[in-house]
Amino acid sequence: MDILKNYQNFKIYFTFFLIWVSIQFGDLVEDYIGYVLVISIGILHGANDLLILSIRQKVKILDKKNLITYLGIVFICFLLFYIQPFFSICLFILISSYHFGEEHFSRNISVNWWFDTFFYTTYGILLFAILFTFALDNVKEIMVELTGNYFNNNEVTITLITSGVLFLLLNVFLIIKKKINLSNFLKELFYLALIAVVFNTSSLILGFAIYFILWHSIPSILGQIEFISGDFNKKNILFYLKKGAIFWGFSILGLLLLYVIFIDVKILNSLIFMILFAVTAPHIWVMNKMKN
Fold it and tell me: How far is CA 25 from CA 194, 203, 209, in A?
């Protein structure tokens, strides 16, 4: 798909631009930029989950089984965070790790279900470990607010080293099996180095937003448009935006309402994470069904 190849170059250049932006401004400005990116494009990339499920089934109206499954996952996530917030954060990181790896590699790497799942998850955990290494104080602060617990330095360092070594070994295996070539692997190392620079120079919020939007959400949106409409053009882009607008609008109104109602930042942060966790989990389920 030519648009994906063209976007690959664009996101690298734009990542360098945002690195420059992060050097010029303080954390407050960076955080606002990050929030705008996540609220606009980040929410949009999960706005058409139910449409994707109905198209996959080749029906106009989603059947009750999948709708109940989708809503059931949302309910379980809310309940789980209420009962075990720290475990919920760990689970959120784990499933998000798989999701990031799946979006990044699924078009080019496929060995078997077990290997693919382990490879995707290892890559995602490595990303989170790099992010946490450079922003551990901020991560601790947020986690203590949400759960009363946090990841310590040793845990993050061990995770970084372990996931890094595993990612290296898995790529060596892929090269030996001729699933990828050396240039592909070196390119991925360059991408990881670039993302590490982003995490090092940006605030926690902006650093995560840059990866989440440029490297994950937009490629996901491009793939979704192709899946929904069969081709990538202006008409299909507008169709995607139109279908996702209602979900996106309600999401924004909901966040604004929470912001107005809850003055206590701790409560607000907990609610926002709970919503994020509850929406992310079924979205990952939908994307997995779409790709398979």
Answer: 19, 10, 16
